[in-house]
Write a structure and sequence with these properties.
alpha/beta; 9-stranded parallel β-sheet; 8 helices
Length: 256
């Protein structure tokens, strides 16, 4: 077990591992673990006790029935003990703003973040705006995830293209002490959440941009209108506007 490098748990619940009210684990370390996938599984005790100092990739797909505070309590502890984490995917787990505020400071090595169906709000992703001032009396300017280069948002219907544009722009300022975001993927977007001016600016700021809207017609009209009012277009050719997003809508676990 100490030499374990990859682990994948699928459709595994707490009741399949432990007897009721029993917590057999003490803290333990998997020194060589570099990739973990918990798919529709929630080994809460393991997350609280496990230390994976060399973990680089983690997928957490929470699709169990009913509400439970367990993931929100256990995940920050687990992520705080994984300082080298570069790739994080969180699927079907809805958490509060305070959870993001507590987790993001531990993700200094993160390069890729993917969210699917988490019902993330504007305020949540606003924590990724570099140097953002907050009106919350408990908050301070955000300087989280300085190495973030890729953001993937699947079926996040409460987010808009405006918050994504603001995140990218905040990380392109000279002397920002953070990486430039080079790749943006937004799939399963509501058409009313996407603005043509945002799309044009995002295309100019990143190397790779995929935009999947449930109905592209309104976005195409908005793009035409914004194009006619702009002088020239220096946007990257590496971008795509797609319709449908059937796999995202059906909630499948997609890998780029």
């Amino acid at each position: 077990m100490p030499a374990l490098e990859r682990v994948r748990l699928e459709d595994l619940t707490r009741e399949m591992i432990f007897f009721e009210d029993e917590e057999p684990f003490t803290d333990f370390t998997l020194e060589h673990l570099n990739r973990a996938e918990f798919i529709r599984s929630f080994p809460a005790y393991a997350l609280r006790r496990l230390k994976a100092p060399n973990l680089e990739s983690f997928i957490f797909h929470y699709a169990l029935s009913g509400e439970s505070p367990g993931p929100a309590e256990a995940l920050p502890v687990f992520l705080a003990a994984a300082p080298l984490l570069r790739d994080l995917e969180i699927l079907r787990l809805e958490v509060r703003w305070k959870w993001w505020r507590d987790v993001l400071p531990h993700l200094a090595s993160l390069r890729r973040l993917r969210l699917l169906g988490t019902n993330a709000r504007q305020r949540h992703l606003g924590l990724l705006i570099w140097g953002e001032e907050s009106h919350d009396p408990e908050a301070v300017p955000s300087y989280h995830c300085p190495n973030l280069e890729e953001l993937v948002l699947d079926n996040e219907l409460l987010l808009t293209s405006t918050i994504v544009r603001r995140i990218i722009k905040s990380r392109t300022s000279p002397g920002g002490d953070c990486s430039v975001i080079r790749s943006i993927t937004m799939r399963g977007c509501a058409p009313e959440s996407v603005r043509g001016n945002d799309v044009r600016e995002i295309r100019n700021l990143v190397d790779h941009f995929v935009l999947g809207v449930l109905d592209t017609r309104s976005v195409e009209r908005d793009l035409d209108e914004s194009s006619s009012s702009s002088d020239g277009d220096t946007a990257s050719e590496d971008w795509e506007l797609a319709s449908g997003d059937v796999e995202v809508i059906q909630g499948r676990v997609l890998r780029n």
